[in-house]
Amino acid sequence: MKLNLQELNNREQWINKGYGLSTYDRDKVVNNTLANPKWVHFGAGNIFRGFPAALMQNLLENDEEDTGIIVGEGFDFEIIDKIYTPHDNLSLLVTLNSDGTIEKKVIDSLVASYKCDYQFKDDWKKLNDVFSAKSLEMVSFTITEKGYSLVDGNNKYYNIAIEDFNNGPNNSKLFLSKLTALVYNRFKTVNWPLALVSMDNCSHNGEKLENAVKTIAREWVNNKLVDKEFLEYLNSKVSFPWSMIDKITPRPDASVVEMLKKDGFEDTEIIVTEKNTWIAPFVNAEKPQYLVIEDDFPNGRVALEKSGVFFTSRDTVNKIEKMKVCTCLNPLHTTLAIFGCLLSHTLISEEMKDPQLKKLVEIIGYEEGMKVVVDPKIIEPKAFIDEVLNIRFPNPFMPDTPQRIACDTSQKLSIRFGETIKAYENDKNLNVKDLKYIPLVFAGWIRYLMGKNDDGIDFVPSPDPLLETVMPIVKDIKIGDKGPFEDILKPLLTNDKIFGVNLYDVGLAPLVLQYFSELVAKKGAIRETLKKYLD
């Protein structure tokens, strides 16, 4: 069985092996889409194929929509050449359930795939034609958080961004500049409304997208490269809805490859592109999923609410994001990431069998975090965290690792834990010094920076933009040192950019220092400390 349209004509062999196939007239959907496109998506990777594309397929199956999605890729063109084109824009969604069962479904809601760059003249023309269609309602994005940035760590424009500002819409290099060029073409040709919807897992994603597009447009206007009315068009006819997305779609996993091969499914090659995208003709993903979008669509929208999407106000989107990022999921993920690396775990699901780590995330979530959780009303926080800790994290068939989650931890601590500390500070009925386990996570992260596990064996910390700054602070500390460590660690503990607060100002620094002294006391001290406070 190969993943292409010709092979799908033999429906019986697929159905007999338990693969879900669509029943709608795909040729009709393709023709409708190319004639009157409604939805373009940029970012052709795993999260898109495993979530939004499947949502659209549900609508097509239920006759709620009659057009599909046009996909664009502006960063890693190999994805189009090696995954989309050879497989006729089809993908296979493999849902890994926590009870050990899997669901297999061929996703064919993707109608066309284009490389978003001037060098691919035919693709670029087709994208411009799509953006010139009055029928186009939504352009969505999964391009990762860093994809929206025009500035470096010092808040200065990247050189490539400055080049784009000077070169204008016909000769830009950044994807965001090329996107702005496509929107400018829409302004020039039809001057019609549009929604640009970030679906990336980052705070205030719509705001990040809006700031980037309008910055590029403003620079072009200042340099007299586009009509000054373009800015008014962006302000009056283009919306930038905020969203919250939540679904784990890890890299394609070898265990899934073996399961598919047993079915006779042949297209299982895992490709690692030159830009280090891990991708395959299939996507392996968990079943739970959430997509909440601000309902601001000036040209209408696809009826995604009939496929489980919440459409609501910007304030509610913001509250749901805070619920997830500050309490119910992300802090717990980071906790498991830090201690998972220190204790040599290789799967998040393994860690949920570790009695101390399981209890640690339960206390941080249900006790310390839940006292100040933001309740968005449309999703109940207790139910959300129940699902995270009882279904999602323990799922043994989800090949997600603490090493992956540990990436960029220095950028995450301030939001995932610092906001809880601030909420305690601002609540007259709470005492920030009652927080006993969030400080343990902070101490664990500082111990992690030593690059040695609980047995004293070296490990390579996951990529993080601050490693070169923070690891030298602890480089002279050895396992078995007795301290005191205050003079060494004070530059870290006072860094409110990392922790969200100055830990001395809120009174938590002494406890972090105490925990760190215990964690570093000897080989095996990490496990011993966890048992001391959690057994």
Give your account of this protein's structure:
Helices cover 45% and strands 11% of the residues. It has 535 residues and is an alpha/beta fold. It folds into 2 domains: 5-151 and 173-214 and 228-312, 3-Layer(aba) Sandwich (Rossmann fold); 316-534, N-(1-d-carboxylethyl)-l-norvaline Dehydrogenase, domain 2, CATH 1.10.1040.10. The strands form 4 sheets. Strands 6-3-2-7-8-9 form a 6-stranded parallel β-sheet, sandwiched between helices. It has a 4-stranded mixed β-sheet with strand order 1-5-4-13. Strands 10-14-15 form a 3-stranded mixed β-sheet, covered by helices on one side. The longest helix has 18 residues, at 205-222. The termini are far apart.
The backbone outline, from C-alpha atoms, is globular
- Spans of 5+ residues with little confidence (pLDDT < 50)? none
- The number of helical runs is 25
Structural class assignment = alpha/beta
CATH class of the largest domain: Alpha Beta
- What is the alpha-carbon Rg in Å? 24 Å
Instruction: Return the average pLDDT rounded to an integer.
Output: 96
CATH architecture call of the largest domain: 3-Layer(aba) Sandwich
Number of domains: 2
Give me the side-by-side strand order of the main sheet. 6-3-2-7-8-9
Distance from first to last alpha carbon: 51 Å
- CATH superfamily of the largest domain, by name, is NAD(P)-binding Rossmann-like Domain
Per the CATH scheme, the topology name of the largest domain is Rossmann fold
Number of strands: 15
Biggest sheet layout: 6 strands, parallel
Helix content: 40-55%
Strand percentage lies at 5-15%
